[in-house]
């Protein structure tokens, strides 16, 4: 192969590799169509162009090609071998173009990445063809054969670095005409895809809009057309205004942006998680309110009402016990018939006779409402967890995100001064986090340092586990002491003293939840983690261990002590007592959250500024505050069976906590010393909310409905052995009244009463989560391989360009040597 052929081949490789995969297909199709049309309509002119181009290249190669001979062949082979040996070491920077030949510069100038700002005519011509294709696809238009060859990219421009001014103006006019005939969505997408500057895109868009206005002003529309036009414009404006109004109704949107700008994504993830919990509780209240609270409130049973003393707000007992707030208020008969028994007790025969009427079966509604609420919540949580898992664990290298954040994250529609300030703070904080992630160095430590670090971690975890175990034992024995004291003195105790003793257990648990995380933070400071995100995740794990162990001991106290022996402590309805306990725990958790905000953040800031004379403020403890939210939400899920109105209490608590924590963060806290990007925190929070929290609450509620005997004098299940028997009784009634529905009774026996299908459903959820994690992991690997391939292709381009330059230099050097030899001869 001659040197000119090698030159053409290498230049072809460079031209192919220089295009991106997205543009290569479109360019290939357009040029294939161009060649076919040239062969049909203008074969003579096209052949003349190709012959002229080939003759120019051959003439140039003959001028530079030396005479063939053994000496030249030896020198050529020696030069090729030297080039192959030194090709990797002699790589040049492709950005620096001094000393490159004209052929290399021509090829570089034709690369798509080098045409922006220098060869606008070629770009406009290319997008002219794209708009024509899109128009033909959208509607019937004249074929491209009807247009003149000058309106399409020509082979004549192969060796040119740019088009003339007149040709560029004409192509711009044709592009404006084509864009004007496209729909608005296609026009916007086409303008966004053009590799032009923002000013040139804006100029083209203004030309298109001006032409549209001129066309509309010149046209004489009929009255019907004008009316139709105005109706469409009014409807579109109304729709956009409605969307803007809905966006403004988004709760806490501006506050969340302000927090993100000042404190970063770590603190923002806490408030986003709190917002998610609000939506879950709103959904839970809507379900229980529509199917339980509202029907029972419309048809209240006969009860002796007690006066309101105000102490009920603290204890949850008193007059609240005779309202729809607790389980014992709900009837065990079908509504709207009331019970004629003053005690509220009825047998199964009454239930059977009532069911013959078209009425509302409260026991069945209570059972299925609680079950479906937990099932739908589980589905939503699993879906949210899989979605956030795919978003947060996707491969996103910090350098690529940094580029996008730097050049294309500003929203030019924001014009208010306050909004501009919030957005600039937000972008600045995100850039700090990305730069911190890029500059983070992983130093290799020696064996002694690693061993010492493992020893410190082991001691820290030993302290945390030992303290958690000691607190569990203390809560266990303290709850046992309170239970035995109530068994012995429940008849002689004053009501105020009894309620004070009942508040002691929530108080002790809240004190432990307040003080022990401080010990965990002290131990964490001893460990000296390099990454702040790792420190946050370790603190979340330790706080989770504490909260879940406390909840486990409390569930054993309620379901293992109080429920079987409720009569020995003077109770007539143990479900109401458990509901009141959960209300007291939620209230105490809120009170101690206020105390922590006051003493842990406000007073510490004042002490640091006034006494210590330091400008440092406390850092917001994400781990402890998030686990407090998960702890409170677990209490709400546990209590929805015993107190259907408890989600309302949780909603009010979350609203107050949001504004209290938001004010405290803005006034008393500062951003972390080391900024970090918390890209996976939301996923971890949702996962913890699903698996330990909701799963644990579902197990406790299912155990209560399946195994524990309800109270015999209150509630919708007072005459049944277990709450689960409500569905079976209803199936028996249906089968007795309508023998043709016996299939439903058998289906209930095999599918609902059999625990095998419950385990199958749980297994399906776990399998779905596992497969989704595997798919995401596969996508991460594929993206990583594609990024490596893109990097390798860039290196290939550099290598080919350098080889091209080296071949051209060899040709010039050989020609000069031969000319010098001829002159000497």
From TrEMBL:
<keyword id="KW-0812">Transmembrane</keyword>
<feature type="region of interest" description="Disordered">
    <location>
        <begin position="54"/>
        <end position="100"/>
    </location>
</feature>
<feature type="transmembrane region" description="Helical">
    <location>
        <begin position="364"/>
        <end position="384"/>
    </location>
</feature>
<feature type="transmembrane region" description="Helical">
    <location>
        <begin position="756"/>
        <end position="773"/>
    </location>
</feature>
<comment type="similarity">
    <text>Belongs to the TMC family.</text>
</comment>
<dbReference type="GO" id="GO:0008381">
    <property type="term" value="F:mechanosensitive monoatomic ion channel activity"/>
</dbReference>
<keyword id="KW-1133">Transmembrane helix</keyword>
<feature type="transmembrane region" description="Helical">
    <location>
        <begin position="583"/>
        <end position="604"/>
    </location>
</feature>
<feature type="transmembrane region" description="Helical">
    <location>
        <begin position="267"/>
        <end position="294"/>
    </location>
</feature>
<dbReference type="GO" id="GO:0005886">
    <property type="term" value="C:plasma membrane"/>
</dbReference>
<feature type="transmembrane region" description="Helical">
    <location>
        <begin position="544"/>
        <end position="563"/>
    </location>
</feature>
<dbReference type="InterPro" id="IPR012496">
    <property type="entry name" value="TMC_dom"/>
</dbReference>
<feature type="domain" description="TMC">
    <location>
        <begin position="573"/>
        <end position="679"/>
    </location>
</feature>
<feature type="transmembrane region" description="Helical">
    <location>
        <begin position="681"/>
        <end position="706"/>
    </location>
</feature>
<keyword id="KW-0472">Membrane</keyword>
<feature type="transmembrane region" description="Helical">
    <location>
        <begin position="306"/>
        <end position="329"/>
    </location>
</feature>
<dbReference type="Pfam" id="PF07810">
    <property type="entry name" value="TMC"/>
</dbReference>
<feature type="transmembrane region" description="Helical">
    <location>
        <begin position="454"/>
        <end position="478"/>
    </location>
</feature>
<feature type="region of interest" description="Disordered">
    <location>
        <begin position="138"/>
        <end position="162"/>
    </location>
</feature>
<dbReference type="InterPro" id="IPR038900">
    <property type="entry name" value="TMC"/>
</dbReference>
<feature type="transmembrane region" description="Helical">
    <location>
        <begin position="502"/>
        <end position="523"/>
    </location>
</feature>
<protein>
    <recommendedName>
        <fullName>Transmembrane channel-like protein</fullName>
    </recommendedName>
</protein>
